[in-house]
Design goal:
Largest sheet: 6 strands, mixed
Shape: globular
Radius of gyration: 21 Å
CATH superfamily: Bacterial extracellular solute-binding protein, family 7
Distance between the termini: 70 Å
CATH topology: D-Maltodextrin-Binding Protein, domain 2
Number of helices: 14
Number of domains: 1
CATH class: Alpha Beta
Strand content: 15-25%
Strand order of the largest sheet: 7-6-8-5-9-11
CATH architecture: 3-Layer(aba) Sandwich
Order of helices and strands: HEHEHEHHEEHEHEHEHEEHHEHHH
Structural class: alpha/beta
Bound molecules: (2R,3R)-2,3,4-trihydroxybutanoic acid
Number of strands: 11
Length: 320
Amino acid sequence: MKQALIAAALLSLVAGASAQTVLKIGYATSKESHYGVGATVFCDEIEKGTAGRYKCQQFPNSALGGEREQIEAVQLGTQDLTNTSTGPLGNFLPDVKIFDIPFLFRDYDHARHTMDGPIGQDVLKKLQTKGLVGLAWTENGFRHMTNSKRAIVHPSDAAGLKLRTMENKVHMEGYKSFGLLPTPMPFPELFTALQQGTVDGQENPIPVILSSKFSQVQKHLSLTGHVYSPAVLLMSPAVWNKLSDADKSVFTEAAKKAGAAQRKKVNDDEASGIAQLKKEGMQVVEKVDGEGFRKAVAPAYANFAKEFGADKIAAIQAVK
Ligand code: EAX
C-alpha cells in the first residue's frame, strides 16, 4: 500500500515535471522576417523563463489565416498567440484606430515613444475589455507604396491607382485623399492579386516588401512613409488567465524583449532593404513629395478630429 502510494506520488512528480504546454503562435510573414524574429525571441524567453513548462509552435506565412482571422481565433481561444499588425485591430477595439492616421507620426522615435508611453500603454491594456491580452507593442514599420504602373513622386501620380489596403477604414479614408482607389483585402490574398493585376499596387513597410518578395510582382517602390504601422503581440485570455503571477511576468518580459528585437530587425531592413530591392529590379523613388501628400490628407484630419478628438490627436503629435 505504502509502496503504491510512493510510486503514485513519484509518477505524478515526473508527470508534473514534464508537463509541457505548447502554444500556437501565428503571423503573416516568414520566420526570417521581423515578425519571425520577434516571435522567436518571445518563444525562447518563455521556454527559458518557465524551465520548459511552456514552449511554442510557430505558424509563419499566414498559415493560420489572415490577421483578422487570427485575432478572432485568439479572442475565441482556438489560437493562443498572434504577432499581428494593427491593420484590422481597430475593428475589435476602436481606440487603436487613432494610430492609423496618415502622417501622424514624424519618425520611428516618435512612434515608438508614443506606443511605449502612457498613450500606447493605455490602449494596450484596453484590449483586455475585448477579450484580448496585449502583451506588448511590437512593430511593422512605416508603410511605403509599390505598384506596377508608374513611379509615384506626387499625389497626382498616385491618383487613379487601384491599391490594396488592409481592412482599415482610417487608411482607406486617408488614401482616398491621395486619389488612390483603396481595395481592402486580407494579406494572404495579396501576392496573387498583384501577380494577376487584380490591383495595381499595395503599401507595406520595407520588412514586409522584402520578406514577401513583392519585387517579383511590383516594379515601382516609392518611399512615401505615409503611415506608421504598429504591431502587437496578442495572447488569448484562455491561456493568460491560467498563468501564475510569476509566469505572467515571464510572458510580459518576454514580449517586451520580442518587441525590441522586432524593432531592431525593422531598423536593419530599413537600412539595407532599399539596396536589396533595387538589386531585385525595383525602381525606387527615394525623394517623394512628402509635403504634397501631407497637404492632400490635411482635409481628412477634420473627420479624424471628429472621430477621435482633436485633443487626442494633438496629444500624440506633442509626444517628444
Ligand atoms: O502585418 O496586411 C498587411 O499589409 C500587413 O502589413 C502585413 O500582413 C504584415
